[in-house]
Design a protein that fits this description.
single chain; disordered N terminus; 2 domains; 7 strands; 7 helices; Chitinase A, domain 3; alpha+beta
C-alpha cells in the first residue's frame, strides 16, 4: 500500500443510521481513530485491519489502535457510536491539525538539513556536485560506471540525521537491484558517480530526496544519508 487516504475519500462514508447511545469516543484523537477505522472498512473492506496498521506505522502515528479497531467492528455490525456528521467532523478537524503540524515539521527538518549540509560541505573529504549532492568516498572501485538507463546491483543503508535506520538491504541480507530511472534524484546522481566496487556515503538534500511530502516512515524534508556499495551493472 503506497498511497494514503485522501480527505475527500474519507469523507464519503455511507454508514448505517442506527447508533449506540453510550460509550462514544470523546477526545479528537479518539474520535479520529474511531472514524478512521470506519472509513477504512468503507474503502478497504476486508483489508481494513491491515490498512489501519499501515496508517499507524507510516502516516498517523498517534492513532489509537483500540479505537480504530472498534470503529471497524462497529461499522461492520451497523452500530456506530458516532453519527456520519460526527465522524466527518473528527476527520476534517484532525486533518487540519495534521497539516499544520506537518508543515511545521517540514520547515524544522529543512532548516536542520541545510545547517548540516553547510557544515558538512566544509569537511576536507566531502565532495559537493553542482546540484548540491554531497558525498564521501570510503572505497573507490575500478569497475564500470552506470548510465541513466542501467540497473545496478548494490547494498545500501539509509539513515536520517539522528542516525535512525530507515531502510537497509544489509538488514535484509540480500543485495538490491535498482533501475537508475526509478530512484530519487540524489541517489541516482550518487550511484552514477561510483565505479563498480565502490563504497560511498551520500548526503542528500530533501529537494533531491522525498521533499516536503516525505514518504512512508520518512518525515517531510528529511535529509537522507545513504551508505552505498556497488557491485555490478545488471544485465
Amino acid at each position: 500500500m503506497k498511497k494514503s487516504l485522501s480527505i475527500v475519500v474519507l469523507l464519503v462514508l455511507v454508514v448505517a443510521s442506527v447508533f449506540a447511545a453510550t460509550g462514544k469516543p470523546v477526545t479528537l484523537i479518539q474520535r479520529f481513530s474511531y472514524g478512521l477505522g470506519a472509513a477504512l472498512v468503507e474503502n478497504y473492506g476486508s483489508s481494513a485491519e491491515q490498512a489501519l496498521e499501515y496508517f499507524k506505522a507510516y502516516q498517523y502515528k498517534d492513532v489509537l489502535t483500540d479505537y480504530g479497531k472498534q470503529g471497524i467492528e462497529d461499522y461492520r455490525s451497523g452500530n456506530l457510536k458516532l453519527t456520519v456528521q460526527e465522524i466527518n467532523s473528527a476527520l476534517s478537524e484532525y486533518f487540519s491539525e495534521f497539516e499544520k503540524k506537518n508543515a511545521a515539521l517540514a520547515a524544522s527538518n529543512l532548516r536542520q538539513a541545510e545547517l548540516f549540509l553547510e557544515s558538512n560541505g566544509k569537511m576536507d573529504d566531502v565532495h559537493t556536485t553542482s546540484s548540491g549532492l554531497q558525498y564521501r568516498i570510503i572505497r573507490q572501485g575500478t569497475g564500470s560506471v552506470a548510465k541513466a538507463t542501467d540497473s545496478v546491483e548494490l547494498d545500501y543503508e539509509l539513515t536520517d540525521l539522528s542516525g535512525n535506520v530507515l531502510d537497509s538491504s544489509y538488514a535484509r541480507g540480500k543485495h538490491s537491484t535498482f533501475s537508475m530511472s526509478g530512484v530519487i534524484k540524489g541517489f541516482k546522481e550518487g550511484v552514477m558517480l561510483m565505479p563498480m566496487g565502490s563504497y560511498y556515503i551520500f548526503y542528500i538534500h530533501p529537494s533531491m530526496g522525498y521533499g516536503e511530502q516525505g514518504t512512508g516512515n520518512i518525515e517531510p524534508n528529511t535529509l537522507l544519508i545513504f551508505r552505498v556499495e556497488t557491485y555490478n551493472i545488471a544485465k
